Prior knowledge:
By secondary structure, the chain is of the alpha/beta class. It has 2 domains: 3-150 and 290-321, Rossmann fold; 152-287 and 341-352, Phosphofructokinase domain (Rossmann fold).
Amino acid sequence: MKKIGILTGGGDAPGLNAVIRAAVKTAINEFGCEVFGIRNGYDGFLEADGIVPLGMREVRGILPRGGTILGAANRGNPYARKVIRDGEEVTIDVSNEIVKEIKKLKMDALLVLGGDGTLHIAHELAQKGVPVIGLPKTIDNDIGGTEVTFGFDTALNIATDALDRLHTTAESHHRAMVLELMGRDAGFIALQAGVSGGADVILIPEIPFKFESVIKKIRERAEKGSMFSILAVSEGAKPQDGGQIFSRQGDEVYVPRLGGVGQVVAAYIEDQGFESRVTVLGHLQRGGTPTAFDRMLATRYGAASVRLAARGGFDRMVALRCGEITDLPLVEATAVPKRVNVNGDAVITARNIGISFGDES
Ligand code: F6P
């Protein structure tokens, strides 16, 4: 193994730089490899200056840094790339060009740090002979093949801190405070932050809610003298009699953008006579320095991916299972996206301590 490439695809997540650093150090220290970074996801293969050398100097000091030193592009799908042809925007498949570039560069392995979409593309490229290895990145924690993705713990801590802060102002003003959280179709951030941050109501995509049930909880609290309530609402949460709420529709390049359910829930609460405010935590969940847990996990994934490359374990993804780093075929890892187990102990525990999921009668 002489030459390794690393790319970061999709939205950024805290820990990307920690992975890059660990992979570069392991590749150089243990295998004497040259490492190259591909800028802006798969796009870098087609851009001038899209490939940059990564040595010890380039990764110095990046362990605690959020974002990615390589840049990200969450529309960077080689199978559907928007380009201007004859003055018109068209969508084309550039996957074969990318494969050609990778082969020209004679890379012995390509480490792909990404979420669901990026890892699916990695598997497709593997079918065309690219020696890819996947690393599970996303704050949503929704990749089936691993117990935890890197980035999730940091987002969870930021969300929990936000709930703590909302508590003090909610109590002072006797208000219902709604915090809208990210996660797409998975409710892990809202569930775990909601429990850790003492929310009274948690709304997640996996448990469709009834507005009447939400207000019942707030009313019961008020009757018992708690004149404020805290609601952790996943952006993908949906009412039993309606669908998810989007702030932008998708197309063949852009995935639909969720957003707005917090506002809808807060407006309903206000209509029922309880003063309410909404906070959308948004990209604060993805920014800034990773937690110690994410730095450690990212470092373990980074080093393990290089060891896997040296063993020739391509078209596979590194994963955390029972506390140990292991690996499995990419196709298996991405076959079924991970969702909150609605009958699992986390949900049962939340119900035991009186948290409403908005589905109670
Ligand atoms: O998948 C990560 C994520 O942060 C989701 O939780 C969120 O819905 C989405 O990306 C936001 O994407 P963008 O950065 O394109 O607004």
